[in-house]
Amino acid sequence: MNNEYTELINLISKSLISQLLTKTIIPHLNSELTKKFKHEELTTLIESINYYSAQKEAKYSIIDTIVFPNQQTLFESIYQPLTLVVQDINKTKISSILVDKYPLDFIDTYQRIIIVDTAGMGKSTVTKKIFLSAIKEQTKVPIYIEVRNLSKENNIQNEILKQLEADNKFKVSPKLLDWFLLESNCIYIFDGLDEISANNREDVVNQLHDFIEKHGNTEILMTSRPEDITLSFGSFIKAHIKPLTIEESKELIERYDKCSYNKIAKDLILTIDAKGNDDIHTFMKVPFLLSLIYKCFEFKKDIPLKKSLFYKQVYDALFEAHDLSKQGYFVREKLSKLSLDEFDRTLRHVAYFSAQQNEVEYSNDRILKYIDEAKEYMGDLRFESTKFLQDLLNTVPLFRQDGLNVKWAHKSIQDYFAAKFIWIDTKEEQSEILKTIYDSENAIQNRINMIDLYEELDPKGFNMTILYWFLQEFKDFYDNKSEEINTNSKLLNDIYKSFSFYSTLVFAKSELLHNSKNQQDFHDYVGEEGIDKNLYYIRPLDLQQGHYEAHCFANRRLISLQYLVSKKKLGLTYSYKVKTAEEHKTIVAVNKDYFTLKELIELNSNISDIETLISIVSVERTLIYENCIKKLYEIEALLDNKLKKKLLKW
Predict the structure, then answer these.
(1) What does the pLDDT read at residue 16?
(2) Are 283 and 246 in contact (CB under 8 A)?
(3) Is 638 left (phi over 0), alpha (psi -120 to 50) or beta?
(4) What residue numbers bound the domain in which 145 lies?
(5) For residue 223, what is the enclosing H or E element?
């Protein structure tokens, strides 16, 4: 037994996370572990953890970026420290941490964190920094899971086991692994909740909830784009990534330059300063868009002012780029023999067909199936699918290899080409496709960035379809279905009716909801109100008479569309500053256990500070009825047959 004990000690000492394994395993070696598990099982577990840690550290320490495709770049050389920001549920207290090392106090304080942010802000980047720092500093045992790999067949436990067994290199005891995961000082990183395929979403969300319940107070970090799936994890504190400052953006540009054969940082920064354009500064705040600025400037010595132009120039740059690492100008031949336009057309089809399934990562067979499908749909192009895939990975590297699978260099690139497919390739089916997306809650939420890019590419088409349908739906509700409230304020009435279009707000005394009977009573009350929406948020609220909870039930499809419309700066929405918890105490609560927003407004209709009352709705963008109707009539005029006939007069 002494020899076996010594062997295990030696194995632990060789691990990258030896201190953590020493704390977790050694105290139990002479008790429960040796009684329950064989020596060979313990040896295998330690070896597999050591191998896993080393392999993952090696994988994440080297990255392949769209700025330097097919070039092994050290993660630390281009990592610009990002700042995580959390805000308490009343939006009154803000905490932040610069992630330049493992954020121990931050994670220990909040325990369960979900980073929710838009495309390109660096969600996966910051989790990889946390993973690498956890190993380097030996603070936690990091377990990294890309959620898109989970399914009904491949659950969380299987995925962890599969990663530790390393393609059958080790045979780990599932029971021993369960013991280790419960006893060790772990942090679980679940990256990309929004990337779960539609078919697997319900199963995977249930798995995550079961896993969270089983693992008690274990620290868990998740990431997602701002989609409805995040609402299922109400016990998690929400964080976002602070946009880069101008100085941080310039530091990142200089980091890129140190890794580049073509030094452009000085000229690029001078161009940015000379233009001094707010739009450029907006793009510079987003790390991925900043990388596209760098790539575009390297290619054309210019900075486009639209996201869609970024993607176009990046594609052109990758397709036509010279390999600057070679002496002279070496242009890689395209194995598929396709021209720039033909390659673009094929890629549009692949992007659209795979976006329908919400897939960004594929086995070789799966991606070849999409390429074959694109060839069949187009009909006129002749090329080998395997060579097109090789081009995507090497000569026009918009894809990258990830183990045995391939994936888009970034999900937003798929969004761009899918949007371009709708704009260029659908012709008479375009309106029907957009209507299908418009009517689908999942499609709108999963592909809001794609629709955003489509609007940039085809603003007229967007206005005459999605915007037109949205304004029609709003007008129909406002004129025929919404109710008036008893208030002297037209503004409050308009706000209430606009808010009611997509959401319903119901309040309850906080202490009443702490037992199951009262919870059921509240659910019955909500049902009686005829709310046919989904729970969107719950937040505590202090009013004059005490503590309450505001429960917002929302139509998530309409919420997403309103967010999209407000981004377009068409003058259709206005916003109000959200007030603090202390300011909300000026509002008188209705003397009932449960009450609606309508009742609260009517009771406080004479309040002088209308913004305080409005801020309880907690919606920063509200539709302006008059402006929406004016825009609707403008679109209807364009749709009028008389205007169409003018195009036919020769």
Answers:
(1) 75
(2) no
(3) alpha
(4) 59-241
(5) strand 219-224
> Buried b vs exposed e over 59-85: b needs ≥16 C-beta within 10 Å?
ebbebbbbbbbebebebeebbbebbbb
Q: Specify burial of residue 587 (Cβ count, 10 A radius: 0-12, 13-18, 19+).
A: buried
pLDDT at residue 546 is higher than 90: no
For 62-92, what is each residue's pLDDT tens digit?
A: 887 878 777 788 999 999 999 999 876 555 5
Whether the Cβ atoms of residue 318 and residue 397 lie closer than 8 Å to each other? yes
Is the residue at 267 inside a domain? yes
User: Is-contact 583 592, C-beta < 8 A?
Assistant: no
Same domain, 296 and 428: no
Whether the Cβ atoms of residue 311 and residue 57 lie closer than 8 Å to each other: no
Would you say residue 472 lies in a domain? Answer: no
Rg over alpha carbons for the chain, rounded to the nearest Å, is: 27
Last residue of a domain, one of 191, 214, 241: 241
CB 307 within 8 A of CB 451: no
C-beta separation of 581 from 534 below 8 A: no
Tell me the CA distances in angstroms from 614 to 252, 499, 567, one per residue in order.
40, 10, 21
Span of 160-164, 191-195, 437-441, 442-446 with lowest mean pLDDT: 442-446
* Residue 2 belongs to some domain of the structure: no
Tell the residue number behind the tokens 């029971």, with chain if given.
175
At position 573, the amino acid (one-letter code) is T
Domain count, the chain: 4
Q: What share of the chain is helix, strand, coil (3-state, %, to 5)?
A: 55, 15, 30
pLDDT tens-digit profile of 449-461? 899 999 999 999 9
Residues 215 and 88 in one domain: yes
546-554 vs 503-509, strand pairing mode? antiparallel
Pairwise CA distance, residues 52 & 15, whole Å: 10
Residue with tokens 């940015």: 272
How is 522-585 classified by DSSP, letter by letter?
A: HHHHHHHTT--SEEEEEEEEEETTEEEEEEEEE-HHHHHHHHHHHHTT-S-EE--PPPPHHHHT
The reported pTM is 0.75
Residues 493 and 614 in one domain: yes
Window from 100-114, 427-441, 460-474, 612-626 with minimum mean pLDDT = 612-626
Pairing of strands 112-116, 141-146: unpaired
Dihedral angle of Cα 478, 483, 488, 490, to the nearest 10 degrees: -10
With respect to residue 49, please indicate whether it lies within any of the assigned structural domains.
no
Token readout for 80 is 């610009």
- Quote the DSSP letter at residue 427: G
Largest CA distance in the chain: 98
Question: Which CATH number do you get for residue 422?
Answer: 1.10.10
